[in-house]
UniProtKB/TrEMBL annotation:
Pfam families xrefs: Sulf_transp
Record InterPro entries: Seleno_YedE, Sulf_transp_TsuA/YedE
Record bears the keyword Lyase: no
Transmembrane segments: 12-29, 93-113, 125-146, 158-178, 190-208, 229-249, 269-288, 300-319, 339-358
Keywords, alphabetical: Membrane, Transmembrane, Transmembrane helix
Source organism superkingdom: Bacteria
Protein name per UniProt: YedE-related selenium metabolism membrane protein
Signal peptide: none
Length: 363
């Protein structure tokens, strides 16, 4: 089984599983082209907890706990749950904040960029180009000696902190805890049935842990080592999601008025450039960070918490992108506010500074 999961067949089947069920989750109730989006779902969780005031994106999504708990189950079954931490946690927290600011400027994480493209949203091409460019800059820093240092073994209980929090979230969701906020309109009001969402996300978490599935890692490996192993899983995700959308008649090619998306190309590119650079400097895309946190990685937990904080900051300060809309029959192109533009540019500058500053020094 271990050999199967590490094989190219294993990574391709994992990509197909994620692509098929991500597309089906939209069919079953999740927002269009947003069957799975780690950034969007963490933003919704931040809203459900009252950390931001954007009423249309508030829901304690069960998929995020499912990814973490599915990963934890796999890691424990195969003896890979190892609590560790201590690799520049403050830097990782800041990277998580700005990764989320960049992702929300684009309106999606790398997985959602692929799902948007699979649904015909051509703005995703611009976003993926920005993501790739950001990762390429991050790879240049890696080649020049960038490192956040090594994690150290920690108490096993410390590795269970985020899985325990995620389990608590599920209990609160199932119990319909009255203090949780829930959107009555907009993306936060749209969801697949709880049991289905949880079952799919547990499966995704399990498979992603076994195969090391990572969007950022796929681009990094091609640039660093010309290794296409992880990339084959990403291509499988895209093609399988497109096949499901084709079957259900959910493909609509174009740039404007795509679901929860804007057609401001410059800020789609720069938002994902920032996100890709931050992901590379932190060592994984948001999905991979959740999977690592389920394995007991406290450094990834800090990054995840940084992304949730970044979601709150983005919406409380008006940094997040706004979708295209129709007003009086005319197209209103969405995009990023001047404050959001400044936040993205500051984030890029800060990430570049971190890339130069965090180089291994020989003593």
């Amino acid at each position: 089984m271990t050999h199967f999961f590490s094989s190219r067949t294993g990574i391709i089947l994992t990509g197909c599983f994620i692509g098929v069920f991500a597309a089906l989750l939209s069919v079953w109730g999740n927002p269009a082209n947003m069957g799975i989006c780690v950034a969007c779902f963490e933003r919704d969780i931040a809203g459900a907890l009252g950390l931001h005031r954007a009423e249309v994106v508030q829901y304690l999504r069960p998929e995020i706990p499912g990814f973490v708990l599915g990963s934890m189950i796999a890691a424990m079954i195969f003896g890979e749950f190892k609590a560790r931490s201590g690799s520049a946690p403050a830097v990782r927290f800041i990277l998580g904040i700005f990764a989320m600011i960049g992702a929300l400027a684009f309106l999606g994480c790398p997985w959602r960029a692929l799902l948007r493209l699979a649904g015909g949203d051509l703005n995703a091409v611009v976003g993926i180009a920005g993501l790739t460019a950001g990762i390429a800059v991050g790879v240049a820093f890696l080649r020049s000696g960038y490192t956040l240092g090594r994690s150290r073994p920690d108490n096993q209980a410390a590795g269970l902190v985020l899985p325990a929090v995620m389990l608590l979230f599920l209990v609160l969701l199932v119990a319909d805890f009255p203090a949780l906020l829930r959107s009555s309109a907009g993306p936060g009001s749209m969801s697949a049935p709880l049991v289905i969402s949880l079952a799919v996300s547990l499966g995704v978490g399990f498979l992603a842990q076994r195969t090391r599935f990572c969007t950022m890692g796929s681009v990094r490996d091609v640039l660093l080592m010309r290794d296409t192993h992880l990339l084959s899983g990403i291509v499988a995700l895209l093609l399988s999601a497109a096949a499901v959308n084709l079957i259900f008649g959910r493909i609509d090619f174009g740039f404007t008025l795509q679901p929860v998306a804007h057609s401001n190309h410059l800020w789609n590119f720069l938002g994902m450039f920032l996100a890709g650079l931050a992901f590379c400097l932190a060592g994984g895309c948001p999905g991979r960070q959740l999977i690592l946190s389920g394995e007991g990685d406290g450094d990834s937990t800090v990054f995840v918490l940084g992304m949730i904080a970044g979601a709150a900051i983005s919406h409380n300060f008006g940094f997040a992108g706004k979708p295209d809309s129709l007003a009086g029959g005319s197209l209103q192109v969405g995009g990023v506010s001047p404050y959001g533009m400044a936040a993205v540019l500051i984030g890029i500058c800060l990430c570049i500074f971190i890339g130069f500053a965090m180089k291994e020094r020989k003593i």
